[in-house]
Amino acid sequence: MSTRLRERFQQGKAAGRPLFIAYVTAGYPAPEETVPILLEMEAGGADVIELGVPFSDPLADGATIQHANHVAVSQHVTLRDCFGFVREARARGLTVPVLFMGYYNPILALGEGRTAVEAAAAGVDGFIVVDLPPDEAGSFLVECRARDLSFVPLLAPTTSDARIPLLVDAADAFIYIVSVTGTTGAASVAVDELPALLARVRARTDLPLAVGFGISRREHVVAVGKVAEAAIVGSAIISAIDAAGPESPARRVREYVEHVTGR
Fold it and tell me: How far apart are CA 44 and CA 25, in angstroms?
């Protein structure tokens, strides 16, 4: 388990506040913008960063993040480039935990063991792999755990009660709760339905719960923070980058993060 992740959730609990987890696609809008964006995310109030590993077929994502992936892929941004982004950001002072979020194919292409080794060396804290369910992730889980990297499973409203224990057993830092059925950015978070979904999970684990999908405004973050340990925002950050125009994308991201976190 990532020490940085564990300590960050402990700090949030001690402070009596939820964490804010911010997502950005590596290499979007351009490779040279990624490290400045990561640094400004932290400066704006992000507690944890999800760095999206570009992939040609991001089927779990909506149009906004799909577009970001396609732009990054067209600029030949690879998984190995993502290691470099994190390594450089750490050298420039980034301290928050960083999770790679994406799909299994780039990991398989590089090799599970090599991926875990290079991730740990670069300062990555773990993985969210949307198309690698825990019951098919045995060998990758072994590689991650051998290097103190966290594996974060996703749990959706359609997940059966019988399957929840399997997901819980694979987790060590937190569980990613998908708030709505569908792709990222497709619909707003169903806040009224969250307590029942979270209660089903809390009955089987004491791990922190982080809610993502459909969260874009400050009121969403506040509402989610009342029932979960963390709120995750992705598509809205990509939209903030798109709205930057001639401005610095990194500065625009910082302004957005500052606004939704209230920090």
Answer: 18
